[in-house]
Write a structure and sequence with these properties.
83 residues, mainly alpha, 5 helices, 0% strand
Length: 83
């Protein structure tokens, strides 16, 4: 496990107190969720419907909040993309 993930304390995750805490908690939650070992365990157990639902929800958030250039630079790590 990489050092930045090891430093994550799940006790710091708390939703509903205020916007700043929600934002920090969401970042920590997503970092924990995206750990390779967890994903290798979780994904094979998911139904096709769960996979589709999760991809659709995440794609909707990306489309709603990122411009095409940001999508390519920040999500796809493709700074050289030209429309």
């Amino acid at each position: 496990m990489n050092n930045s993930l090891r430093a994550i304390d799940a006790d710091q995750i708390c939703f509903g107190l205020d916007r700043a805490t929600d934002e920090r908690s969401l970042q920590l939650f997503l970092q924990l969720f995206s750990q390779e070992t967890l994903l290798q365990t979780l994904i094979p157990r998911m139904t096709d419907q769960e996979i589709t639902l999760l991809v659709d929800q995440l794609s909707t958030v990306l489309r709603a909040h990122l411009k095409e250039k940001e999508y390519h630079e920040l999500f796809l790590n493709d700074p050289d993309h030209h429309h």
